[in-house]
Design brief:
The chain contains 8 helices and 13 strands. It is of the alpha/beta class. Bound molecules: zinc ion (ZN).
């Protein structure tokens, strides 16, 4: 039987960097680059769906706000790193994107949203609520969203635990069992995370910085702890990831290293081939 999600592709639309020892106690000195990951799903009937959109190059423009952001999170964005240009290299034009699921509204996730004039945007209810009552700490850079963003929004609320994913309440996005969306607090309120049963894959936004960094979670320093929306919920999100991994599900987060993402996508494709 052919799959509903026919393909999953991955792009890094810019990156930011940090020093491991500034994030966690008791770790070796190491500078790490965190790609702003974008996933492209090809749905059999709904067309192309993006999960997040990476950075906007505009974040490198001179501005006090962007300067402050860059101080904590230095951004690297080459010309050509824009998600619409990366897609173009792969033969897609912006109008080909029918849906964009924004996991949350930090600048490394919503930055490319304005490049897709026909896409409908999908947010969880909790992300939408925060968007409406945004505070400085929420780091929602509204200027990178298209002017007509509100009129293209579809807000969804995970309502029940489905047999396909027993760990959390989800919503079956298109009612065909291809994409289940969960809402997970912690790093940001209600981050939209995806479970794709055909690939046994959970794509988990910023539930952690990288799956390989999960063992350091409890050693997180004060400053990175303070930038999380809720440290307690963050730890619960990490526990969810650990459980999924222990149960042999594949897990990816938005800032996993590109090589890891490619390996996991490769393994997930093999799963799907064996499964169908
Ligand atoms: Zn974030």
């Amino acid at each position: 039987m052919s799959k509903i999600i026919e393909t999953i592709d991955y792009f890094a639309a810019g990156s930011c960097s940090s020093h491991l020892q500034r994030m966690f106690k008791g770790v070796p000195k190491k500078k790490i680059s965190f790609p702003a990951g974008v996933f492209l799903l090809k749905h059999r009937s709904k067309g192309y769906i993006l999960y997040d959109t990476g950075y906007s190059p505009a974040i490198q423009k001179p501005s006090l706000k962007y300067w402050c952001y860059g101080l904590a999170t230095p951004v690297t964005m080459k010309s050509g790193d824009r998600i619409d240009l990366l897609l173009q290299e792969n033969g897609l034009v912006p109008d080909d994107i029918s849906y964009i699921i924004l996991s949350h509204l930090h600048p490394d996730h919503l930055g490319g949203a304005a490049f897709f004039p026909k896409a409908r945007f999908i947010l969880t209810q909790a992300v939408f609520d925060r968007y409406q009552k945004r505070r400085l700490k929420d780091l929602i850079f509204r200027e990178f969203l298209p002017a007509d963003f509100d009129s293209r929004l579809e807000v969804v609320e995970p309502q029940q635990v489905e047999a396909a994913f027993l760990y959390r309440k989800t919503v079956d996005l298109f009612g065909d069992g291809s994409i289940y969306l969960a809402s997970v607090d912690g790093h940001a309120a209600g981050q939209g995370c995806l479970f794709l049963p055909e690939y046994n894959l959970f794509i988990a936004a910023d539930l952690c910085w990288g799956v390989d960094l999960l063992p350091y979670t409890e050693q997180m320093r004060l400053l990175p702890s303070l930038v999380q929306d809720s440290k307690q919920d963050y730890l619960a999100g990490v526990a969810l990831l650990r459980r999924l991994l222990a149960d042999n599900h594949q897990v990816l987060v938005s800032h996993d290293p590109t090589e890891r993402v490619k390996e996991v996508l490769h393994a997930s494709r093999n799963f799907s081939e064996n499964f169908y």
